[in-house]
């Protein structure tokens, strides 16, 4: 039997989000019922609620940065118990059988693709609804354990922003002796700075202006440069082993590729609304790589959470009530947040 729970949903593309109720499935044998405590606001929530990427289904309950407490478990659940601190990220299922799923890379599932936490269709044929709600039911295989070393509210953004930058930093071997540049210092970028620093890399922030320089240095950056200054691209030419581009706007790709060393890589984790272009000679002249990366798999996401707990890392957040979501969306678009909005789901229970 399904249960109706309170949520905030976008009733149509570009429409303001509003309070509503949504169905949650009954807890199955391998399911975990999570009482959501906090839900982060990701820029992709805005893109999807406004149907900027196409294919959106409404009503839509966004939210894939979920932190909460286990309220009930199915009879076959072995990993979690009532009262555990848990999280849910960007996916709630995948085929589990393709090579990528078997390798712990469920985010790259080739057996129909991963099933998103919201704006997707579950195996039961029903739409998935995200974390802007009081409860969610998720198969235990797609639930993460949040260590005690991270506060639940600061942990919520790690389930997307944290793993989105941790995965490429690990894959491209950020660490001692490596020079890493982070483009943009918003919700993703500020976590990239923290994690790259904790990994031991020399970290440079490349931001439009020097407005956030003090923050960047405090969070672990060694250097901070303004990309609005043409001298930056001359001064830093050929400097970096790895560039992690976190912004959701189109950049002069060739200019940024010119900052890479021989065999350097520029990895895009932000997703602009419009296509980007570049000159292939920007790659050929120094055997450079232009790459993309999504989130991590379940195993790597747990590794990231444990790493953050070990190093005392959490997101820098601004806690809001559910009635501030629409305002928060506008502020995200205006880059007016330091550095992640997190919804206090207790405000949905009032």
From TrEMBL:
Its EC number is 1.1.1.2. It is an enzyme of class 1 (oxidoreductase). InterPro entries: ADH-like_C, ADH-like_N, ADH_Zn_CS, CAD-like, ER, GroES-like_sf, NAD(P)-bd_dom_sf. Keywords: Metal-binding, Oxidoreductase, Zinc. PROSITE patterns: ADH_ZINC. The keyword Oxidoreductase applies. Its cofactor is Zn(2+). Signal peptide: none annotated. It catalyses: a primary alcohol + NADP(+) = an aldehyde + NADPH + H(+). Residues 15-343 form the Enoyl reductase (ER) domain. PANTHER family: ALDEHYDE REDUCTASE. Belongs to the zinc-containing alcohol dehydrogenase family. This is alcohol dehydrogenase (NADP(+)). It comes from Streptantibioticus rubrisoli.
